[in-house]
Every structure is written in C-alpha cells, then in structure tokens.
C-alpha cells in the first residue's frame, strides 16, 4: 500500500508520518511537496501536523486554498482514505472536508503531552484494530485544538457515529470532548492527537500503530485478491 | 483605488479565550468596569476594481478571510489608498 505524505511550507510532522508508515508499519510512503503534485498513484493520503504557512490568518486556512486540496477532495470522493493529524486536521476543517472549526485552547496554552483517548467508534477503516471503547495513549501538541461546531452539527456527528476519538480528560475545551472525527462516507479522518508519534514502545506508546494497521487491513481486504 | 477595512470577530456564543484573558488582565490593571472583551482581526485591502465590489468582498470573506463556522465579519469601503 502506498501512502502520500503531503508537505506544505511549515509542515513539521511530515517525517514522523513518513517514518511511521515506512519503518513502523512497513508500507510504502512518499513525501509529496504540495505544488505540482500528482496523487493519482497513491492508495492513501496523509496530512501531517505542523504550522503550514506559519498559521497565518487561521491554522490551516492558507493551505486549504492550495490546488492540491482539489486533488485530495477528488480522491476522497472516490473513497481513498485521507488522514489529517493536528495541522492536517485543521486543513481538513478549513477545506470543508470535515465539519466544524478550531479555536484556541480554552486555557490559551500550547499543550504538549501524552493524553488518554477513548476509541468511540472502532468500526471505521481507521480503527478496526482497536477494541470498542479501548483506552489508548497518544501525544498531543497543539495550541489550537479546541474543536468547535454548533449543536446541530454535534447532534449529527453523534447520530452518525462520526466521533471516532474522545479525550478521557478534555485538555483543550473541545465540544463533546472530541479528539477526532470522520466524514459521513467514513474515509476522511481528522484528529488532533498524533498517532504517528506513537508507533513504537520506545516513543512512549505504540497505540498509534493500530490506526495505520487498520487502514492497511481494510485496503487489503478491499483491493488485494485472495486475502 | 479603494480601501476596504474588514473587521472579523468571533460569533456571539463562541467562547473567546483570548477575550477572556484580556478582560481578566484589565481587571487586574484596575479597570473593573470592563464587563466584556472580545478579540478579533482587522484587515485592510487595497482594491482596484470596476466589478461589484461588495460581492467580491463577500466572496473573499466567505472563502478565506473569515471562517463562517466561528466568525462574523463586517467591512467599510473608502475611496483612495491607505499609505
């Protein structure tokens, strides 16, 4: 399976993402610069964390206007799995691929630490390797991870089981303790915690690896004959 | 040439942690009369346009300058460029 890691000016978790896929997971990965990119040969798209365009205007807002986002939208509509982590999640929100928006953390602090999450939906293609309501540890590192949506959108997210991860102890003020949400079609996941930074025990947690394994398992079942 | 002054604020009902911190700091500085503070953004655009300028600005705001999920915007249009 071949993963594209999209690199914007200011991305800084791109190599972590690349390492997670290439070395921890053992699948193909390529760093793809956002300009003049061709995503046609890739089976999955990863939007890494960082500070694209220096977080100017709003986190992810400028990156969301780049032409590669049109390709990502096209691939997403065709069913390609898309994962946005941290700034990648912000880009997915700003581009309209996922509903809602990010606000500054409630206490205005940039928070960088391990955080306990609950896997709320283990029936998505990103989470089948997790148990139902499994408690996992992933690192967070953000100043604007306070997820916001209005009550109508929140009710929709709940009703459609689009809330995939919740914080056990909400660190940033997100509505519904939301740490990660998926689109209705079930192939675009955005999350503030960093699964790519938790793929080996030596990193403090290997709980993120199951997310990538889930994606590969789903892809093999769908596209590789005889599995 | 026209100068467009755009004010972007968080919607009412959306928690503004920066505004809250500013308000608390003003209280500490001896301004207990401050009963609310909201922090927003101010932008100036210089436009050389013959087209429907209101429509253009609305489009710019909804596509990029403001995020309609959390922000409201208002603007004024003035003749001439700001130096």
How would you characterize this protein structure?
The complex is a heterodimer of chains A (227) and B (83). Chain A has 227 residues and is of the alpha/beta class. Chain A has one domain: Class I glutamine amidotransferase (GATase) domain (Rossmann fold), CATH 3.40.50. Chain A is built from five helices and eleven strands, in the order E-H-E-E-H-E-H-E-E-E-E-H-E-E-E-H. A nine-stranded mixed sheet of chain A has the order 2-1-3-4-11-10-9-6-7, sandwiched between helices. A two-stranded antiparallel sheet of chain A has the order 5-8. In chain A, strand 3, helix 2 and strand 4 (82-85) form a beta-alpha-beta unit. The mean pLDDT of chain A is 96. Chain B is of the alpha+beta class and 83 residues long. Chain B has one domain: Phosphoribosylformylglycinamidine synthase subunit PurS (Mth169, Chain: A), CATH 3.30.1280.10. Chain B contains two helices and three strands; from the N terminus they run E-H-E-H-E. In chain B, strands 2-1-3 form a three-stranded antiparallel sheet, covered by helices on one side. Chain B starts with a strand and ends with a strand.
Low-pLDDT parts of chain A are none
Strand order of the largest sheet of chain A: 2-1-3-4-11-10-9-6-7
Strand content of chain A: 25-35%
Largest sheet report of chain B: 3 strands, antiparallel
Shape field of chain A: globular
Could you give a quick summary of the protein structure above?
The complex is a heterodimer of chains A (227) and B (83). With 227 residues, chain A is an alpha/beta fold.
